[in-house]
């Protein structure tokens, strides 16, 4: 199969959809891989690395897209990219269409087959192509929070691990899923005093068991959040209610109960944020201060660590890429009931119900197409 890997063009996106290792894997299986010149640069992969892996390089973007059967990307296609997509091509990337009506319509118009990373499922009911980025964001949350606690950043001047004779800082993590567990784990590793709040007892059981009581697990209620607000130096917001905007768990009025210079890191900002005072920021200016509380609300945290994020993402996508290349999309999806829900748009039709419902469109059961 002819596979193309464009350079990402979304603002401050440095990841790439295929590593040289992945390219070698595909070339060895008899596929032709063409990578846009400098596509891997931001993630630490040179053009020479791809050539050494057997891939060809292409500088002309139109030629790259028009010659491909399968296009591998990271971010949802931007307008100029969608304009290049044609019927018969397969696009495999993050799409997040339920929040993107214009993109949904333009992908339908393209006639292409569009498979989204984020709607592929696994046997445990998880989202295996979202989890690696949640892991990255969760681990970064504490790094960002610890930095924000420094005086020069507007923070209280607290060192999370403390020192001998000085108690460690207190970290509360609201939402103990993938992001939350990874944040809590980093905070534990730093030596902070860690509390995780979640609505799911099953999840709290897992964390209690896994960390042998080294982090406090607390059922998430308004009272428990009030207590976390009063006591914590750093609060990480990591809740998710699938398909819904994040609930506002900390209001502006509650900020006055926090210690001055405490830090809120709202990882759930990509779902609207779980603190009332959160607004999306970028890596260029990641924090701002409201009522003396430092807010870090970067919506694409993994972008800052493009090397690690690219490797983590491509480890997860690679088995699906290989299946698409070896079998074609129809057979690959037919053979794997967890891959099937990845199909979002095919030949002008929406094939993912939540996306169709979001925009009042008809949806076609993907099982009927494979
Ligand atoms: N900013 C970024 O760069 C970035 C990167 C990755 C993920 N995220 C976002 O982080 C959020 C969390 O993702 P995840 O993968 O950990 O999701 P997840 O489903 O693994 O975990 C979410 C957890 O929140 C819990 N929860 C729901 N309501 C709650 C409440 N009221 N109080 C306490 N807990 C509650 C759930 O029980 C669940 O355990 C999502 O919004 C995701 O989109 C952001």
Could you please describe the fold and organization of this structure?
- The chain has 370 residues and is α/β, with parallel strands linked by helices.
- It folds into two domains: 2-120 and 306-368, Rossmann fold (3-Layer(aba) Sandwich); 131-299, NAD(P)-binding Rossmann-like Domain (Rossmann fold, 3-Layer(aba) Sandwich), CATH 3.40.50.
- It is 33% helix and 16% strand.
- It is built from eleven helices and 15 strands.
- The protein has helices spanning 20-28, 47-52, 61-66, 79-82, 101-110, 131-148, 178-190, 201-210, 222-231, 306-334, 353-358, and strands at residues 2-5, 32-36, 56-58, 70-72, 90-93, 113-116, 170-174, 193-198, 216-219, 234-237, 263-266, 287-290, 293-296, 343-346, 349-350.
- The strands form two sheets. Strands 3-2-1-4-5-6-14-15 form an eight-stranded mixed sheet, with helices on both faces. It has a seven-stranded mixed sheet with strand order 9-8-7-10-11-13-12, sandwiched between helices.
- The model has no long low-confidence stretch (mean pLDDT 96).
- The chain binds nicotinamide-adenine-dinucleotide (NAD).
- The site of nicotinamide-adenine-dinucleotide has 32 residues, from helix 6, helix 7 and strand 8.
């Amino acid at each position: 199969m002819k596979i193309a890997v464009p350079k990402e063009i979304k603002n401050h996106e440095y990841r790439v959809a295929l590593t040289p290792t992945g390219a070698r894997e595909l070339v060895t299986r008899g596929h032709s891989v063409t990578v846009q010149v400098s596509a891997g640069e931001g993630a630490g992969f040179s053009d020479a690395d791809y050539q050494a892996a057997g891939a060809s390089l292409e500088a002309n973007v139109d030629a790259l897209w028009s010659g491909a059967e399968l296009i591998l990307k990271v971010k949802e296609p931007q307008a100029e990219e969608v304009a290049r997509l044609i019927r018969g091509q397969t696009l495999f990337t993050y799409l997040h269409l339920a929040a993107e009506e214009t993109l949904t319509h333009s992908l339908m118009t393209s006639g292409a087959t569009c498979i989204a990373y984020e709607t592929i499922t696994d046997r445990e009911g998880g989202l295996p192509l979202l989890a690696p980025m949640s892991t990255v964001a969760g681990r970064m949350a504490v790094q960002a929070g610890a930095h924000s606690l420094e005086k020069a950043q507007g923070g209280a001047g607290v060192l999370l691990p403390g020192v001998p004779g000085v108690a460690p800082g207190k970290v509360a993590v609201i939402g103990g899923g993938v992001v939350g567990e990874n944040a809590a784990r980093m905070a534990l590793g730093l030596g902070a005093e860690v509390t995780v709040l979640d609505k799911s007892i099953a999840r709290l059981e897992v964390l209690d068991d896994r960390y042998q009581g080294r982090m406090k697990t607390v059922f998430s209620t308004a009272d428990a959040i009030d207590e976390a607000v009063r006591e914590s130096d750093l609060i990480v917001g990591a809740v998710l209610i699938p398909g819904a905007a994040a609930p506002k768990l900390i209001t502006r009025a509650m900020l006055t109960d926090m210690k001055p210079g405490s830090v809120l890191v709202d990882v759930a900002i990509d779902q609207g944020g779980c603190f009332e005072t959160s607004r999306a920021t970028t890596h260029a200016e990641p924090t701002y201060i409201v009522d003396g509380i430092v807010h870090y609300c970067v919506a694409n945290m993994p972008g800052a660590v493009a090397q690690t994020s690219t490797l983590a993402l491509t480890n997860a996508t690679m088995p699906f890429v290989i299946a698409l290349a070896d079998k074609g999309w129809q057979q690959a999806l037919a053979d794997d009931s967890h891959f099937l829900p990845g199909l979002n748009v095919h030949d002008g039709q929406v094939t993912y119900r939540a996306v169709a419902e979001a925009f009042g469109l008809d949806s076609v059961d993907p099982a009927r197409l494979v």
